[in-house]
Amino acid sequence: MSFSASIERSFEASHQLRLPDGSLEKLHSHVWNLNVTITSESLDAMDCVMDFHELEKIVDAIIKPWRGRNLNDIAPFDSRVNPSAERVAETVGRAIRLPERVTIELVTVTEAAGCKAGWRPTLL
């Protein structure tokens, strides 16, 4: 048996994807909707996977520098990582630090209605 919990956060930011020919698409912005789902086989002392507010604080600290900014100007998107929805989800997911018994199940990013991408950690 396992349990899961999810939070949703959003932030507004602009970006330009680097195209295969090296050029950049036109600068545009989105309200990025982020969903983080965590899982655990046991519950904590409050009978929760993790306190929602604690998870929100962790995720908010990760996305705070991105709010109202051009993602292309912020590491890791400034040079080596294309600021696609997939890479935004991965960057958030890799930055999250959770209690030992809690793992990330899925991080999804919706950048426009009907356009959602996700990242799931590979379990070895």
Quick structural overview:
The chain is α+β, with helices and mostly antiparallel strands and 124 residues long.
Which SSEs are present, and which pair or pack?
Elements: E1 3-15, E2 28-40, H1 52-63, H2 85-95, E3 103-112, E4 115-119
Antiparallel strand pairs: 1-2, 2-3, 3-4
Looking at CATH, the homologous superfamily is 6-pyruvoyl tetrahydropterin synthase/QueD
Strand content: 25-35%
**Number of separate strands:** 4
Radius of gyration: 15 Å
What level of helicity do the residues show? 10-25%
Measured distance between first and last alpha carbons: 20 Å
Counting structural domains, the number is 1
**CATH classification, class level:** Alpha Beta
* CATH architecture assignment name: 2-Layer Sandwich
The main pleated sheet reads as: 4 strands, antiparallel
Put simply, the count of helices is 2
Structural class: alpha+beta
What do the pLDDT scores average to?
96
What are the secondary-structure elements, in order, as H or E? EEHHEE
Could you please say which CATH topology applies here? Tetrahydropterin Synthase, Chain A
3D structure, described in words:
This protein is an alpha+beta fold. The chain has one domain: 2-Layer Sandwich (Tetrahydropterin Synthase, Chain A). Helix content is 19%, strand content 33%. It has a four-stranded antiparallel sheet, with helices on one face. A hairpin with a 2-residue loop joins β3 and β4 (115-119). The longest helix is centred in the middle third of the chain and has 12 residues, at 52-63. The chain starts with a strand and ends in a 5-residue tail after the last strand.
